[in-house]
Amino acid sequence: MRRSGRIHNAPGLLVLAFVISGCAGSGTLERVAMPTNSPTPFVAGYHVYWAEEAWTEYPFDILDELYFFELEADADGGFLDRHGWSTRWREMTTQARAAGVQVTPTVSMHDADAFRTLFPDAERVERLVQNVVGLLDASPDVAGIHLDFEVFETVEPDVRDGFTAFVVALAAEMLSRHPTKALSVFAMAFDDDDVYNERVLGRVADYLVVQGYDYHSAGSSNAGPVAGLAGWGRLNWDTVLDRFRVFGVPAGKIVMSVPLYGYEWPVESDALGATTRGVGVTIPYAAPREMVGGAPSARDEAARHGAERDEQSRSPWYRYLASDGWRQGWYDDAESLREKYDFARSRGLGGIALFPLAYGDPDIWEGLRATFAR
Question: Are 247 and 288 in a shared domain?
């Protein structure tokens, strides 16, 4: 039996009034105020298109939501690549829904030049709004829309405001045409380039999926935890959650994304968090090598070299001396993930979202069941 009060069925409406200067108008907007009224966080996960049929092994019995990743938006307000949505994934959607799991397509953009071209242009923005809402017209059984627009460099103020206006306009159009569908927005852990207006996004979206990973990424100058809970300066969940509190985002509207992968770096020494001497490689927790271009799994590498655990971040890691020097791998396992689930529960967060589900294994699924038992 699935728990009631899941993310799209929360009581109450929040009336928001926004005036977006330099953008395509303003308006009054009603959206669902909180993502869930359940006593336990909801559980979501991403199915990435390159994982093919891996969805047949997903723990649908413990999931509330499945995000299909991804439909790539282009600079003109259309779609560059839908990756087979929705025809190719019809069986996945059908089986997920039969198990009581809601399915949501993810509309994405990760190209900074396309982002700069699209969002100052009101005509292109309106085209994108209509194309995104058209996904709901074509697939009335999906639960809503998830946005994942990620830019890692400074943009002009009209670009920033244009993206904000897009989310506001999309929310209004969805409310008018599909009032039972939810709008969620992926939010960067840190926004040092000030690309996003998190205060407005946190109000207009039904919930934010906050980046809970890549706090150390492939290009980092030091090895370290990918998704630490504490310690390591600002690179931890506590600091990120405090950042969104400042923006006035209620804890119940925050869903923390959780990695099922890590990185292995060439490093200068065997010291914890040593300086890197090159770009790291992604190591899925437990994915078939053919799915990830031959990359080894973190689970297998840790078993081979001996896993250790950092007391500050609560993250597992390993180190070994290769023919070209020292290497360190950092990742998350069933134990560290359970601590993240407990963090979400203790802070009253709306839920967690695992990325990507295809990199998990039965130990990860059992940890989910133990924490979020129905």
Answer: no
